[in-house]
Design brief:
By secondary structure, the chain is an alpha/beta fold. It is built from ten helices and eight strands.
Length: 261
Amino acid sequence: MRETLKDCKRIVVKVGTSTITYPNGKLNLKRIDSLAWMLSDLANRGKEVVLVTSGAIGVGAVRMNMKERPTIVREKQAAAAVGQAVLMQIYQNFFNQYNRTVAQILLTKEEVGTEERTTNTTNTFRTLLEMGIIPIVNANDTISTWEIEFSDNDRLSALVAGLIDADLLILLTDIDALYDKNPKLHPDAKRISYVEKITPEIEAMAGEKGSTFSVGGMQTKLEAGKMCEANGIRMVIASGEEPESILSVVEGKDIGTLFGK
């Protein structure tokens, strides 16, 4: 099963806020550099790569000297406006080092709410990928409340994977896999290597959300997994602490948790 991941051509990688920032909310530049390196290397191998990134609100909140992630909608939108500019500048700087062009795509519900706009959005993705450009995607939190409604970008990444008929979605998170119980609380927790179908029993293994500046958790990742399941897309949850795990997943190594047939 893992061996077939080597044949995946179109890959969506999602990074959460906890992957690209420190616990204090400031950007982890070393990790973002490694991420840019890994994705550029995949593109050099002939893979088509899309990056879905969280972090705009958290990064913006830190830049605006907020003590924690804002809870008022207008403050979230203001933080997102600041954070998006910071994130894209950082991503561009690192991807430029590896001679790789990136593009920003900010999505709202409207882009997938009507047939015409869905088609236009899909065409944009396909054109960029055909040109060897890596799209960097986030919810457009400056004008919508999508992240509030969708609980982080896990489901957004699954939606993007479905839009572009991706072969694989990789979710990088602060927990390196799905476990039978919370490994942060239970040292004897066992990693679940493979999940063919997400059942109520599997969902019961999900824990709580992550860090102060993020909103996602294992539950939202399983919800993304069900979306991928419905579209015949395989998904892997893997550690975001080492972006090199992206290559390990694509090379078929037994890390993280693989979902799907």
